[in-house]
Amino acid sequence: NIHLVAKWLSILEKKMEQHSEGSHENFRVFISAEPAPSPDGHIIPQGILENSIKITNEPPTGMHANLHKALDNFSQDTLEMCARENEFKSILFALCYFHAVVAERRKFGPQGWNRSYPFNTGDLTISVNVLYNYLEANAK
């Protein structure tokens, strides 16, 4: 009965707010949930999500492919265009890794995120251009 769970979660959120002040510093609440089959089932209140540590036991199956796909957007010339090549390549890899993580997280929908934002290939390309301009303009 999903409507009963939704009502209970809002009560739980209020109780957690009430007891958060003045509680023992080692007090923790553990909640376990199965992923919702559809976006309509994403009923965990935002207040609980914002004050939680989210852990998943599902391996990121598409990370390797997503990382390769992100890196494939850039040619060898792009990788060598910056005067500070080592810094450029390291940060470009970090941007591609972030892009791969966001792409992998899309299958979970907005759950666990404050807002849904795709960080698409255009965003990745613009970020790399900003990175290049920043590194070229700054000696440190």
Q: How much β-strand is present in the residues?
A: under 5%
Would you identify the regions where 5 or more consecutive residues have pLDDT less than 50?
Answer: none
Distance between the termini: 58 Å
How would the global form be characterised?
elongated
- Helix run count: 6
The total count of strands amounts to 0
Round the mean pLDDT to the nearest integer and report it. 84
What is the gyration radius calculated from CA atoms?
21 Å
Instruction: Name the helicity range.
Output: 40-55%
How many domains would you count in the coordinates?
2
Find the structural class using helix and strand composition.
Answer: mainly alpha
Order of helices and strands: HHHHHH
Profile the largest sheet: none
Protein name: Dynein heavy chain AAA lid domain-containing protein
GO molecular function, one term: dynein light intermediate chain binding
InterPro entries: AAA_lid_11, AAA_lid_11_sf, DHC, Dynein_heavy_D6_P-loop, P-loop_NTPase
Organism: Chiloscyllium punctatum (Brownbanded bambooshark)
Keyword list:
single chain, 140 residues, mainly alpha, elongated
Overview of this structure, please?
- Residues 1-56 form the Dynein heavy chain region D6 P-loop domain.
- This is Dynein heavy chain AAA lid domain-containing protein.
- Helices cover 54% and strands 0% of the residues.
- By secondary structure, it is mostly helical.
- It folds into 2 domains: 2-51, no CATH class; 63-138, no CATH class.
- The radius of gyration is 21 Å and the shape is elongated.
- The N and C termini lie far apart (58 Å).
- The model has no long low-confidence stretch (mean pLDDT 84).
